[in-house]
């Protein structure tokens, strides 16, 4: 089956170690629906700039966790092809006197709640007091120049990939005129083929970290029996801040430490 050239060209963003698995995944998609990729190649979707497979820049043998979100951000400046990494966010901390997290972080609800979850897990915030003066005090320490905290979302991405996180979305595309669940369903054969290859090649099978209802659907795929799994509500839910499983997973990683 012929994979459209715009889709194949996007494979250049992926590390060479993933190329055979990604091609197998695309062939599996074509076998399940011979028209989907051709229609997608002619459509308007996010992410732009051939970043469809940007999440796979991390070499396969470095993957320790596969964090699965729902889909790309629905804004061109935010959708990077990497789960949860909002391209519109630079600094994590507000530069305003008495400010807490930066305005772009606060606008990105999931990222805001993820940051607060990390701060609670680390003991820098109390679960019943994650805003106002308490958050401002953390921000002031972070911006003090002492090097105690990372400063940007790019720093966060480096810390996560340094811990072996493949930051993947259940659906690799967002289209404003297509229901996200429909695109996610179309990418299931791709996900299953790629994850089967990962399980077969990995020295230690990575742990799946599944966020949200679309990601939860993946747990029903036959290939998922080969992976340890941790599931949580999507971070856009306030309850995510206090999720004990997330605290236990991320606390030892010290992701906010500069």
UniProtKB/TrEMBL annotation:
- What InterPro entries does the record point to? UDG_fam1, Uracil-DNA_glycosylase-like_sf
A GO molecular function annotation here is: uracil DNA N-glycosylase activity
Task: Tell me which Gene Ontology terms the entry assigns under biological process.
Answer: base-excision repair, AP site formation via deaminated base removal
Tell me which stretches of the chain form a coiled coil: none
Known PANTHER family for this protein?
URACIL-DNA GLYCOSYLASE (PTHR11264), URACIL-DNA GLYCOSYLASE-LIKE DOMAIN-CONTAINING PROTEIN (PTHR11264:SF8)
Q: What is this protein called?
A: Uracil-DNA glycosylase
Task: List the source organism.
Answer: Duganella lactea
